[in-house]
Amino acid sequence: MHKGSACAVNTAIIAVAAPLKVMNVALSFFLLYPLFLHLSPPVSAKPATFQQDFRVTWSDSHIRLVEGGQSVQLILDQHSGCGFTSKYKYMYGRVSMKIKLITGDSAGTVTAFYMNSDTDSIRDELDFEFLGNRSGQPYTVQTNVYAHGKGNREQRVNLWFDPSAEYHTYTIMWNHQQVVFYVDEVPIRVYKNNEARGIPYPKSQPMGVYSTLWEADDWATRGGLEKIDWNKAPFYANYKDFDIEGCQVPGPTPCASNPNNWWERAAYQKLSPAEAMKYYWVRRNHMIYDYCTDKLRYPISPPECMAGI
Ligand SMILES: *[C@@H]1O[C@H](CO)[C@@H](O)[C@H](O)[C@H]1NC(C)=O
């Protein structure tokens, strides 16, 4: 839809079923599947070659292609979890992927999709963490925002659908004005640029795109009360339709500051009225935790909490 400036990179890992997109399929995982490297290169204005957009960072024996090559499956068992990352980092833009989370009893598991500057003590990070649950109990999405090394901004929303039944789209939109986390078309979290009020904002470090699947039953489900049931292993999370539109780093330097990048346009600088309604609907009906209102942790609400969307 949005094909922005020349430096925007669109990375779609897509359905083999959509023949025109086949070429987009080559994502990097295919390093594991040399066969795919024989596909002819895409006829595309896009500079990216998909074989090079992602790589496995943790346990390639636990990541494989499924669904006829349409999607990537992450596996968690007693031996290991796994993870992958984009080969490049990006400065502003929008990253999305479709994920079908672990079916059945997923208590104690965490599936994450996040962006991270990978710069230790000053890191910027934008997190989606999907916290598993016992069968029939709601999956929880935890989001967090780190700016200049400071995080501790957790919010939690229980999903209003079963995220293991179908693929749903999870999106991080990041521009000079705001960071928005979307579940399908619903904005569940907004972090505005309030630098004018002295609140740090991620704006000077490019971030890579990451995903991991691991065991965290010491905290993930009901605060650690519900343990992982290894009898139910292996656990599977499936991914497809990766899309990265952003300024690749290293890349042409004016890209990130170009106000003509589509994600910088007025329509993306604040939520539309329709989006704001959805946002408030989530907060009213599905939010189960907000650091902003956790008086034990923050007797005085952090300043970004007072600033509105
Ligand atoms: C799991 O289910 C319980 C009971 O319905 C709920 O309180 C909790 O928020 C759910 N999510 C997690 C991650 O514990």
Automatic annotation (TrEMBL):
InterPro entries with a match to the protein in the record: Beta-glucanase-like, Beta-glucanase/XTH, ConA-like_dom_sf, GH16_AS, XET_C, XTH
Compartments in which it is found: Secreted, Cell wall; Secreted, Extracellular space, Apoplast
Lineage: superkingdom: Eukaryota
Post-translational events: Contains at least one intrachain disulfide bond essential for its enzymatic activity.
Principal location class: secreted
Active site residues of this protein: E125, E129
UniProt keyword annotation of Transferase present: yes
Enzyme nomenclature, EC number: 2.4.1.207
One BP annotation, GO: cell wall biogenesis
Keywords: Apoplast, Cell wall, Cell wall biogenesis/degradation, Disulfide bond, Glycoprotein, Glycosidase, Hydrolase, Membrane, Secreted, Transferase, Transmembrane, Transmembrane helix
Glycan-modified residues: N133
Gene Ontology, cellular component aspect: apoplast
Its biological purpose: Catalyzes xyloglucan endohydrolysis (XEH) and/or endotransglycosylation (XET). Cleaves and religates xyloglucan polymers, an essential constituent of the primary cell wall, and thereby participates in cell wall construction of growing tissues.
Family per record: Belongs to the glycosyl hydrolase 16 family.
PANTHER family given in the database record: XYLOGLUCAN ENDOTRANSGLUCOSYLASE/HYDROLASE PROTEIN 8-RELATED (PTHR31062)
Protein name, per record: Xyloglucan endotransglucosylase/hydrolase
Species this chain originates from: Nepenthes gracilis (Slender pitcher plant)
